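Thread: Modeling a multi-component assembly for a lab meeting

Hi all, long-time lurker, first post. My supervisor asked me to bring a structural picture of a complex we are working on to next week's group meeting, and I have zero experience with this. I have the sequence lines for every component (416 residues in total). Could someone generate the structure of the whole assembly? Inputs are pasted exactly as I received them:
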Amino acid sequence: MTTASDRRTAILESAARVIARRGVRGLRVEELAAEAGVSTALIYYHFKDRAGVLRRTLEFINDRAERYTTGGEPGAEPQESPKPREPLEPLEPRQELERALLLELQDDELVRENSTAWGELRASAVFEPDLRHDLAKASLTWVQAVADLLGQVQPMAPAGTLALAAERLTALLEGLSMRWLSGILPLAHARALMREAIAVELERLEHP
Amino acid sequence: MTTASDRRTAILESAARVIARRGVRGLRVEELAAEAGVSTALIYYHFKDRAGVLRRTLEFINDRAERYTTGGEPGAEPQESPKPREPLEPLEPRQELERALLLELQDDELVRENSTAWGELRASAVFEPDLRHDLAKASLTWVQAVADLLGQVQPMAPAGTLALAAERLTALLEGLSMRWLSGILPLAHARALMREAIAVELERLEHP
DNA sequence: GTCTATATCAGGATAGAC
DNA sequence: GTCTATCCTGATATAGAC
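Re: Modeling a multi-component assembly
Sure thing. I ran the full set together rather than chain by chain. Output:
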């Protein structure tokens, strides 16, 4: 049985796919409807207008990324049970850090989808102030998470220093991700650069 | 007297402005025409179609950035004489490096315009393979320039290492630039992060 | 809640005069 | 080379039946 709420979710999943394929600018309500197997009217019914779709999709992607980045707190709905993804056994802090940062640089379909959509939304936010709020919030959470991981590797480092390193690493990740997605940097190379950057930053934290 | 070639250039300048204001997705041929003070038909006459405008604008921005990044080789046309911009007296290598990398993080109108348009084109390239070629070329030149500057500061470092550091620094710059332009990172903070990253990389090059 | 059908309109593109 | 006028497609959004 397919409830209305399921349908909403299905539409959002489709939206993420379409955005990953065509970009925010390329998202056509009609194509989205086709992808989700519903009529365009239904989309307007649920999301008011095209902008509404974008806003909701941003939130949706945000949640989903948070889940797979952190290893999915049991707090959230257990939906999407099909793919448990990586076992995520507790790792050494250092490995945990690498995993988190390299997660966005993978050729996994879902990850690529998220990264692409994410990059698009980030880029769109330059011109659409409506998106900034969510974007800033997500960005902050993400930086904080990385700062925490850095802190676990280098417990002696002061919080401020950790935060700065985290900002650099996440900004770098975004830059690399963009280059990868736009095809000017091979994935493996991007990953190597990221790993090296982590090493550089950790060294810096150790010998200030 | 206004030659046809001048007009072409004027249109491209306008295009850069419009892209900076509305984004690539937001560029309307009609608005561009208004901005440049010409008819839409003329734009199609000169650039074939909207995509043509984008391609040419990318090149245009590319050249312009190259000029102000490198301090303007006399090789290029001396056009645009009005603004000599910063005197650009020869600096210490280290300062030269900082200047080059921080140049994109400035609230100068022209720089902001270039950065924004650049970010847009980069983002667009994810979905429009036509743009990738120019993008890759520009990216390469830019990375190479930074690698050279790094080499001037640390002449003992091997070329490969320099290249990697340059890739990280430029990718970071792009990430920071995006965050700045989308309003989630204050300019001053972005600049501070960039400076620190330069310091970290240089240290790394010195004590491998 | 969901669909079919359609109104509406913005914006890319062209014809043809000058 | 440049303009005025106009065509026409493609995309958002709504009306109304079920």
